[in-house]
Amino acid sequence: MVGLLALAGALALVAAGCGGGGKKSSSSGGSSSNTGKTYPLLRVVWDAPDYMDPALYYTVAAFQIDNYVWTGLVGYKHVSGPEGATLVPYLAESMPKISADGKTYDFTLRKGLKYSDGRPVKASDFKYSIERDFKMDSPGVGFYSDIKGVSGTNGYATTKKGQIAGIIADDAKRTIKIQLDNPRGDFLYILALEFSHFVPTGTPATDQSTHPIPATGPYMIKSYTPSRSFELVRNPNYNNQIPTMPSGNPDRVVGKIITDPVAAYQQVVSGKADYDYQPVPNDRLPEAQSKYKDQLRLYTPANTYYYALNNAIPPFNNIKARKAVQQAIDPNAIISGIYAGLGRPTQNFLPPSYPQYKKIDAWKFDLAAAKQLVQQSGTAGATVDVYGPNEDPSKASTEYLANQLSKIGYKPKLHLLSHQVYFQTIGNQATKAQAMFTDWFQDYPHPLDWFDVLLNGERITKTHNNNPGNVNVPSVDKEIDALKKFPTITPAVNARWEKVDSDLMATYATTVPYMNRSFTDFFGPQMNMSCYLYNVVAYWDFGVSCKK
Amino acid sequence: MATDSTTEFTLDTAAELAGEEHGAIEGKSPWLLAWRRLRRNYISLGFLFLFVVIVVLCSLAGPYARDIAKTGPNDNHLGETFVRGGKNVNVVSKGGFVGGQFHAGGVPVGPQLWHAGGRYVFGADNQGRDVAVRLLYGGLNSLKVGIGSAVICTLLALVFALLAGYYGGWADWIISRFFDLIWAFPVLLLAIALGTALSINGFHHFGISIQSGSLWIPTLVISYVLIPYVGRPLRGQILSLREKEFVEAAVAQGASPLRVMFSELLPNIASSVLVFFTLIVANNILTEAGLSFLGAGVQPPNPSWGTLIADGQSRIVTAPWLAIIPGIAIVLTVLSLNIFGDGLRDALDPRAKVRMER
After folding, report:
1. ipTM of the complex
2. Do the Cβ atoms of A286 and B315 come within 8 Å?
3. Assign residue A47 a region: left if phi > 0, alpha if psi is -120 to 50, beta otherwise?
4. Using an 8 Å Cβ cutoff, are A395 and B71 in contact?
5. Computed over its alpha carbons, how large is the radius of gyration of chain B?
6. Digit-coded pLDDT (tens) for B272-285
7. Is A76 left (phi over 0), alpha (psi -120 to 50) or beta?
């Protein structure tokens, strides 16, 4: 399994789905051009994107910009509300024909598609783009392991030679056929990921962040200086070629990269920027709320903050010990104190925005009961190695966990690590971490991105383990495998996912989810907030923003 | 014994200077003369008293936490309340979404002084921990690291200086290059690099095992990076003293090198060492605060004045006391040590040019 790095979500390091659509309201309908509210310049303060190459970037900071630059066969509707997670055809003429066994996807490209440099968009570019991902060891290649010819000792993932047999492109007919070894219910969502975005055949298989790749979307990158700035301008060859996404209101987007939230906030307050990507610092929230109330928007993306407990080794291979920790954690206290109230308590693993979500209310904060459970489990007095990142608020959240463990009878030993190495460290079995801070932001809106990636015992690895708690409930693993094969989501399938959530969190108490974190969007007074659109996958949609 | 007045600095010098003070020095030891001079320096003594008060207060951290504040230094009180004037007060203000409306929370309670029965005298931090308790424990840790590293650093520097200065030649060359090697790095950067590396995995080499999070890590790191800053000037003094007649006399009488180093040379640089020590304690407390502020010193959840300032900086607008109070503690401690150190130097040798070279 390849680097599903979205675990680095403490910094919202997330690859969400692709952008698309183009409505400013939550009304249905997937097509839109611009809204007639174009304006010359949008000045934003942004977080540092990891890359500006669709084969490599894996952060929200990059995705929020680049979903208007490069596009795939399908993408998301640019609407607010749950409908924002709906897939619509982008470069594809229509949604694909899926064979009855769920193993074959047939697409046809729209006519007359062009890159920003004027070159035609060809069906074979898709194949090239996916193969380029493998050649570049893209963090997204794991998503394509079910395509025929990818896995196995002679598969493309290993050899990186020849071609991927399961992708058949016909440039003349503009058709793309994708064949899978196994049906995969989330495959369309995978095709909406940035790693599936089209780049012209022949694009070098090296990081092109500072040599912008020709775009298929409404904007193209004019310049990008890592850690300093970027500039988007309109794609001169766009011609509204993707009618299912907005053509964008600002003519130009100038981004200043500032990673310090205080400095970023100050840029907007002083009128030097129109938008602050960084969360408003807790310290400034009261001011922002009272003084700039109309310019502040709060949103809760699909994320879950949870404490992972190592189910494989003592003391948390004991279910009573795990249940004790669940009862020792007070989500409201964490949200109030550490996150300034920006969050919603949860006991579910799935975020509430999912149709498969059914609220779990299985335990209550009760230190005395937790202490008693620890005694009953026979694990009292055990030393627990607690791991967390060394920057607030994640640091404070980890310190809280350690302190609560000490209150219920354990001897916690705190290890705080830099974000750069944190997830690799806890994802390495040799670390033997016993209790950990962690979080997850969706790659795409499907339960498989949660349960299969994070809690399927069959996917536990020695290193780069996305399941640092080594959660392994064989009956649930089987159910996840079974649900993976359903190509469509139905109420019956949803009910089964609900049970997976409940089994893992309540029945087996495998982990301790406590919060769906909320964030801020902060704007300058010149922005017209009636155009504000938050999409559940792509977050703030700058393309439909407008000015007063 | 005659002495030049450039860098050499011995107890003989103090005795000579005492003679210039129109007072009888016969039968008085140089130490006594220095003490006479020091006790007339009320400012120095005042700051020494201040330092002693700080040390005593920090030493009382345990009883204060147990009997007055009734909480440990790392105990969070998120979601809890305390009583003030018969009313329940949130330790950290509540926030969240209520009825679709967001209310910003997370502001810790401010200094209560004695209005809450000894709880939260200096307020709480963003995890609801008692700042006064953490300040005292933090001070204890800062003092332990500052004094401990100064002791180790001074001892090692002294040994290196004696070896290099007495033997000269290859021994001097090797030790001087070792000093140069350390000196080649900016002191704080080297300390950050070492502190960061060791605070992740601890130190487990040469049969020595130090766990990550141990106070020994910042103590040893600071000792190591500051060795040349003490060792170099001491080596210079030893080089100069080695050529003196009393050393030649001792050698002529058959004294062993160890005897010469520890019975002849060491007593003659003792006053320098003493002055260096007081100054370097202050310097090390500052270095520790800097390292801890940057996450490379005392490791959370253990407090130190540096970590307290780091924790407080994110709340500088809504809870400024979190950073200001430990900042004041550092200023007072370092100021008291520096002023006392200056006074001590003046008492031992008003003309000496002993300085920390940075």
Report:
1. 0.80
2. no
3. beta
4. no
5. 25
6. 898 889 889 999 99
7. beta
